[in-house]
Amino acid sequence: MTQRDPAASTPVAASDSNSANPTSEIPSPLFGSCPLPIFQHKNIVLGHGSGGKLTSELIDKVFLRAFANPILDKLDDQAVLEINGARLAFTTDSFVVTPIFFPGGDIGTLAINGTVNDLAMSGARPLYLAAAFILEEGLPAEELRRVVESMGAAAREAGVQLVTGDTKVVNRGKGDKLFITTTGIGAIERDVNISASRARPGDKILLSGYIGDHGMAIMSKRENLEFEGAIESDCAALHGLVDCMLDACDALTDKRSDGHPLHCMRDPTRGGVATTLNEIASQSKVGMFLREDQIPVRESVQGACEILGLDALYVANEGKLVAIVAADAADAVLQGMQDHPLGRDAKMIGEVVSEHPGMVRMETRVGGTRILDVMFGEQLPRIC
Amino acid sequence: MCLAIPGKVVEAFDQGGMRMAKVQFGGIIREACLEYVPDTKVGEYVLVHVGFAISKVDEEEAHRTYQILEEMDQLSELMAPVVAEREGQAPGFRDSATGTNGNHRPETKVTRGKEDAC
Amino acid sequence: MEVCGGQTHSIVKNGIDHLLPEGVELVHGPGCPVCVTPLEMIDKAHAIARLPDVIFCSFGDMLRVPGSAGDLFTIKSEGGDVRVVYSPIDCIKIAHANPDKKVVFFAIGFETTAPANAMLAWRAKQEGLKNVSLLVSHVLVPPALAAILQSPENRVQGFLGPGHVCAVMGYEEYEPISAKYHVPIVVSGFEPLDILQGTLMTIRQLETERGEVENQYSRILDREGNKTAQKLVFQVFQVGDRNWRGIGTIPQSGYHLRAEFADYDAEKLFDVAQIATRESEICISGEILRGIKKPKDCPAFGTVCTPQSPLGATMVSAEGACAAYYTYGRHLNQAKGVDVPIHSVGGAA
């Protein structure tokens, strides 16, 4: 998964922290007040992996510089390739979650479903996966067996095949039990054009269901943050849900002059719904306006978030998607989602606006408004 | 500073010489130390901050606050909170839209414009 | 002014300040222990966290607060053993599990957290643990209120008292302050309705020219507070002077560990004398903490100074006035224009 602030590459930005939400009212950075380092940090910190601004900075200042090409620069979760007339979606991901077993899944189901979802988000039919395993010396073979069997079951359920792989073992202490890296390839068979830069003012924002389940399920197993309760990861393969949505689009009989009505689609994994919507807002150069009372959060997840001082909008999901749909198609697509088991609780949570480009605002449950900023590093439990 | 959440004591026990409890917050359960509210009984509500119950929730007062808020007509378009019946369940505030229940936390929507909010 | 950072968070997160009528201005107070922890103390914490045999435990709030050179995350990336804990008592478990390491807990907070921090020191002493200590930076609310009211530049006319601080301490100690300065102090909760009701009660007092302490949060606290908790707090801690970042030293405004707990006092156990502390010259945190200025009055706000690169106290944590305003409310800045307050009841700066 990749993300980036286009404005962050402007050479005069004193810090890229306000460039994610440019408005005409915020004064431009003070020239010369802070020298632009190639990359500010001496070492990588955990925040670089959290999906927020630090991750953006890392991608922009380190990776893009080395690899620049038009496909990569789009920074979608998958690359759409044209090879000999066929449109293919191509993606890679790695899975390092701790603990490797958690309520509702394990690192194996995450690996399969996460990769399938990255492909599905471009409207592709997921076909083949590859997986590379890095095993830590001392990992109990039984645990590996459980994970791999999980993966097999998840792959069969998703209708994909794992066709090649690799295994390495590293010394004890060098690998946190098990890391899995996957690659996936899928075929784009419909006439879709889904990209994070296609959101337009007036589009509706759809969310497929309850948020925060996965991240809080993980938290529930982490030391010092344990709680008991019925929070399970929502880890699931979403390509069936996407098919329903695309069927709904195809069934619309009106001729469309502005292309396919499904403009953007992404699964809000690390960084949560707030981060994902900010990315799209930024790449499409539009604003967004949400209604907090339309966003479904389970009571148990809300309770867990409140105890730890976390915000469910920033917590990872592994079986949800957000879709930005042309206004005249939104009701049909929403209905299509709700007809599918994984979209039963789908809601229309807001719309794309022309004001405040790059910024996501929200009407709170008491009628005020707030900005939903993109995270900086990880979300941490707080006492204040 | 002061992130503290009310929850219901569902179990009380001793551990390592300290009085502890399992406290339920909206469907999940976490342990908290009861040393500072020693006379708390199972079924009562406590306010928990960093793993310690620092106060008990007074149900009569919770009910009274709710009544006052209800009488305050200045808050226009109050989404009808449902006050849970008092058999076996403490009165609390419940917003039918958000579904939070029994945590003694008033939830409602305030719409500006018609009357002064304050 | 709402004193408590948690109330600030709730106000800005729910957009409550946007809902209030013209003529009521909310000003954020210094109720954020993260913001007011002196830079020197943060540097001490970082110096200790860098030591190879130390496991440095902290609430999540402090992890990203920068010292003069980096924050606890940076130290973690350089090999320091830095751990987030939810409760101070978690440190006991960590100490048992790591007998050859020194567990140091960053004991920050207002009075709300004092009982929990006190319990850590108490239990550690009872169990005779040799590898646990606390780096204490506790601050108290009433002296801060008095300091604000004493200032000749004060604009605040009423206060929302800190609900959870008072759950522990009661509100007796606010009565002399209220009487002396004839200001309403309404101890309030944290839900949007609590804050609105507290604001209404304050305004009603102002309109009838009263200046009293009232309790909006009656379902949680009473005048005396939690005597059991207070007892242990005073067995472990004693009141002393504390330096508040952005304000300066306020006499008798904080807790220090008593002499009997010297073996658990990280400031005494670790030699951290050689710290070179550098504050930013352009930061106006002090004036913001006292409600005299607002974030938008600062030329560095949102440009050089952001939550990701904070220059001073009020941008450093999510509850600080500048950070809260930046994260949630900066788009409202332009809509409001210049306010001419009829009543100043602490709120968004």
Tell me what the structure shows.
The complex is a heterotrimer of chains A (384), B (118) and C (349). Helices cover 28% and strands 22% of the residues of chain A. Chain A has helices at 53-67, 70-73, 107-120, 141-158, 213-219, 239-251, 272-284, 299-308, 327-338; strands at residues 79-83, 86-95, 101-102, 105-106, 125-136, 161-170, 178-187, 204-207, 228-229, 262-266, 287-291, 322-325, 347-353, 360-363, 369-371. In chain A, the strands form three sheets. Chain A has a seven-stranded mixed sheet. Chain A has a five-stranded mixed sheet with strand order 1-2-7-5-6, covered by helices on one side. In chain A, helix 3 runs parallel beside helix 4 (141-158). The longest helix of chain A is centred in the middle third of the chain and has 18 residues, at 141-158. Chain B is mainly beta. Chain B has two domains: 5-56, Roll (SH3 type barrels), CATH 2.30.30; 58-112, no CATH class. Chain B is built from one helix and five strands; from the N terminus they run βββββα. Chain B is elongated, with a radius of gyration of 16 Å. Helix content of chain C is 38%, strand content 19%. Chain C has 17 helices and 13 strands. Chain C has a domain at 36-140 and 226-269: HypD, alpha/beta domain 2 (Rossmann fold), CATH 3.40.50.11740. Chains A and C meet through strand 15 of A and helix 1, helix 2, helix 5 and helix 16 of C.
List the helices and strands and how they pair.
The complex is a heterotrimer of chains A (384), B (118) and C (349).
Chain A: H1 53-67, H2 70-73, E1 79-83, E2 86-95, E3 101-102, E4 105-106, H3 107-120, E5 125-136, H4 141-158, E6 161-170, E7 178-187, E8 204-207, H5 213-219, E9 228-229, H6 239-251, E10 262-266, H7 272-284, E11 287-291, H8 299-308, E12 322-325, H9 327-338, E13 347-353, E14 360-363, E15 369-371
Parallel strand pairs in A: 5-6, 11-14
Antiparallel strand pairs in A: 1-2, 2-7, 3-4, 5-7, 8-12, 8-13, 10-12, 11-13, 14-15
Helix pairs in contact in A: 3-4, 6-9
Chain B: E1 5-15, E2 18-25, E3 28-33, E4 45-49, E5 52-56, H1 59-71
Chain C: E1 2-4, H1 5-14, H2 16-19, E2 24-25, E3 28-31, H3 33-36, H4 39-50, E4 54-58, H5 72-77, E5 81-84, H6 90-97, E6 102-109, H7 114-126, E7 132-139, H8 141-150, E8 159-162, H9 163-169, H10 175-181, E9 185-188, H11 192-207, E10 213-215, H12 227-236, E11 237-244, E12 248-257, H13 266-269, H14 285-289, H15 313-316, H16 321-329, H17 333-336, E13 343-344
Parallel strand pairs in C: 1-3, 2-13, 4-5, 4-6, 6-7, 8-9, 9-10
Antiparallel strand pairs in C: 7-12, 11-12
